Amino acid sequence: MSATLRFDNIGKVFPGVRALDGVSFDVNAGEVHGLMGENGAGKSTLLKILGGEYQPDSGCVLIDEKEVHFGSAAASIASGVAVIHQELQYVPDLTVSENLLLGALPNRLGWVNKSAAKKHVRERLAAMGVDLDPNAKLRKLSIAQRQMVEICKALLRNARVIALDEPTSSLSHRETEVLFKLVRDLKADKRALIYISHRMDEIYELCDACTIFRDGRKIASHTRLAEVPRDTLVQEMVGREISDIYNYRARPLGDVRFAVKNLQGDALSAPANFGVRRGEIVGFFGLVGAGRSELMHLVYGADKKKDGTIQLDGQPIKVRSTGEAIRHGIVLCPEDRKEEGIVAMATVAENINISCRRHYLRAGLFLDRKKEAQTADRFIQLLKIKTPSRRQRIRFLSGGNQQKAILSRWLAEPDLKVVILDEPTRGIDVGAKHEIYNVIYQLAERGCAIVMISSELPEVLGVSDRIVVMRQGRIAGELPRGQASEQSVLSLALPQAETVAQAA
After folding, report:
1. Long-range CB pairs of 437-444, under 8 A, 24+ apart, other chains included
2. 45, burial (CB in 10 Å: exposed 0-12, middle 13-18, buried 19+)
3. At the topology level of CATH, where does 254-329+416-504 sit?
4. What is the pLDDT of residues 319-374, one digit of tens each?
5. What is the C-alpha separation between 450 and 230, in angstroms, rounded?
6. What is the pLDDT of residues 243-281, one digit of tens each?
7. For an engineered disulfide with 33, which of 12, 27, 137, 150 has Cβ 3.0 to 4.6 Å away?
């Protein structure tokens, strides 16, 4: 049987980086083919070649044994290819229906037929089992809802070749189940699918075959994935054995370093109260929309609170802006690195130093460029950020390496007291996760109070000393590490009616 999609000896070089080096593998109709590898291994670059954003420097792409050349994204789409990228691509001020039909909006005498567009989108979304309001503007939606819009956009095109890059990175459990059903339906309909994920459970649940990338090269392809041990895939990805990805390290805990009392805001349905001790890692878990990020935005001064107090080392402090929070030693790594984290046109070094550079002023006027360079190089090495140099623009880095640069920005602050991490390992490979967890433990061992928000329950259970669970805009309860299990945490996170239904 001939392959629907074939990559034949694909090579791609950027200044100072060989992103792909002689990559070849096939994807058959009616097959879900997983791609795995560390951040910067070349997976997303390959999808951008398939999607017409990049052209290969060597080799070719074949569809139905015919060589194809995509000079643009439009050419790729016209050939029956749909690529769902990890970094979302949408128009925030357009509605769901306008985003889904962008480039193919129904019209009447040159005027967009909005009622026909909404009707078509509503019918298709209902058929796919996706609950989205066609009239809602993308700017008003959560990250998870925007992710579903991107996924549905590709599916509406009826493409024969579909590639998904970390599609569940922001989805709730319920939305993930909807996506999995869509993938299985597409497989049954004989589409050829590529599925990139760092979540091993997803790869084994959905994929028939798998190809492993490392440093731009294909390391291995497994046509019968179910027969391959998980440890084998991890070792092929990172080039070394990782026995325990979380590598939890117990440590003595001090007094309460950071406390939130009676905090109220528009996104919360009840006042929030919690504390974090010196050296403690408190994990915040909840379903998408539970209010975790919104609570931390209030704490950090990014959103205006209605009432409540914040205490640091037993003393009340005022946090009316993010600048005030940083001056108190409170920092936040945001969930949406593209819109709230990186400065896309700036270099890696500038992104790392953007906050701490106030400490590098000479005579209060001149930047000490040498110190900035030393700081950037130190964290590039410490977090193993894959970049040809500190002068590379950060937008050319993979999503995971951008995340490492954001984390470096706050690690470079000299007087950290409270570190809030919102989905710190979203879209990051297993090896990089292991490194980031070690950095988190090191911060805790220095006496920092750590708050970590994560939608990955195994991660919360694996790293945290204590888990706070949020549900529908309020804190539903908390559990010490020794009493926390998937069942006990989910029983707090799920609405009562859903918990009863699951028990039945």
Report:
1. 437/245, 437/246, 437/247, 437/462, 437/463, 438/247, 439/382, 439/383, 439/407, 439/411, 440/281, 441/247, 441/249, 441/251, 441/281, 443/411, 443/416, 443/419, 444/251, 444/279, 444/280, 444/281
2. buried
3. Rossmann fold (3.40.50)
4. 999 989 989 999 998 877 777 778 888 999 989 888 777 777 776 677 788 888 88
5. 31
6. 678 889 999 999 999 999 999 999 899 999 999 999 999
7. 27
Structure tokens at 57: 């420097």
Is the alpha carbon torsion for 124, 129, 132, 133 positive or negative? Answer: positive
Q: Are 379 and 412 in contact (CB under 8 A)?
A: yes
Tell me if the pTM is above 0.85: no
DSSP H or E segment with residue 37: strand 31-37
Domain ranges within the chain, ordered by starting residue:
5-238, 254-329+416-504, 339-414
The structure tokens listed for 503 are 């028990």
Q: In terms of Cα–Cα distance, which of 266, 176, 211, 194 is closest to 50?
A: 194
Quote the CA–CA distance of 471 and 494 in Å, as a whole number: 7
DSSP 8-state symbol, 347: B
Amino acid at 253: L
Packing angle between helix 114-128 and helix 143-156, nearest 10 degrees?
Answer: 100
Domains 5-238 and 254-329+416-504 share a fold: yes
The domain made up of 5-238 is a member of CATH 3.40.50.300 = yes
Q: How many CB atoms lie within 10 A of CB 153?
A: 19
Identify the burial level of 376 via C-beta atoms within 10 angstroms of its C-beta, where 0-12 means exposed, 13-18 middle and 19 or more buried.
buried
d(CA 145, CA 132): 8
